[in-house]
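Intended use. Records like the one below are meant for learning the mapping from a protein sequence to its folded structure. Do not use them to infer anything beyond what is encoded.
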Amino acid sequence: MGRPGRSCQRGPHSPTASLQRTGPGLDTMSAFTHVSFVLAAALAVATCLDVPKVHLSSGGDMPIVGLGTWQVTNDQELETALDAALQSGYRHIDTATIYRNEHLIGKVLSKWLKEGKVKREDLFVTTKLPVYGMRPADVPDFLNQSLAKLQLDYVDLYLIHMPFAVKREAYDNGKINEDGTDLSTDHLAIWKAMEAEHKAGRAKALGVSNFNETQIERIMKQAAVPPANLQIELHLYHQQRPIVDFCKKNGVSVTAYSPLGSPGSKWLALITGKELPDLLSLADVNEIATKHNKTSAQVLLRHTVQRGIIVIPKSSKPNRIQQNIDIFDFTLDDSDMAKLDALDKGLDGKLFDMKHIGGSEKHPEYPWTALLKK
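Structure written out for the chain above:
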């Protein structure tokens, strides 16, 4: 997956942990008031939080824990969450054009940068080309829009959000028409436009999201700048082992979205008819959490991180944001890992089939053809 990197050195490390950071214990944190939380988080920054990084094939290092921001569009909620994340030591922020929150992220990042509380080179910001921008000419247009909203001169990683496309006019204020499918998608032409943005310095690294192995390999064979990252749904019930192995062999780092099983996506059951799994309440997970004096969420994140996979958990609650990055002072042993590995349900554990996006299942680049038979 790439060599681990360190953002800084601070204090001694436990000899039993392969990925570590130090900081206030969770028992203490749970008793803090909001004021003392902010103080403790500020102290964590002052002592220089040590978050492991994954080296990207195109150069640069990506923090292995980032803040996911999907489904957070309320101004105050996102600003509070992002402030809490930055105070807790997060330097990796994940967003997308289609999330409609880049302007809010830009507002907070601009404040931190102007006040000198963080340097631009210490931040890692990811955004994505939207599904309704899947034509070569759209790439500079949408990236420039994202940069303006984020108030940045460049993003650290620019991803193609989906392998399929809908027509630009099919998108209307957060909704995509069911008959909006655009069958003219050309990944190689889009990738060349992405490479031009990389060459111009507006995107330090390039990648894809929700692509399958065949689609990634097609780009790799023609690319002057190969994909540096794949972002996919990945959690305990959907561990994505075949494509993770493929990426490891080909020098592509992997980012897991919904690493906790997306417990906030209650709407999903209404669309798919699937029952949303409660990974945080599984007996095996709770047993391991008790063993290590950690939360079930921390165990789930640690399980993925120990596989060398980047995680971007989403939360708007400051205490959970702090807990989600506090996973480097313990290690899951072989029996823990085996027990959690055994809970993988493969494709049956997948939550997001994206069939609700503009008739995507009819698109020739729909990536999960096995789902069409279900």
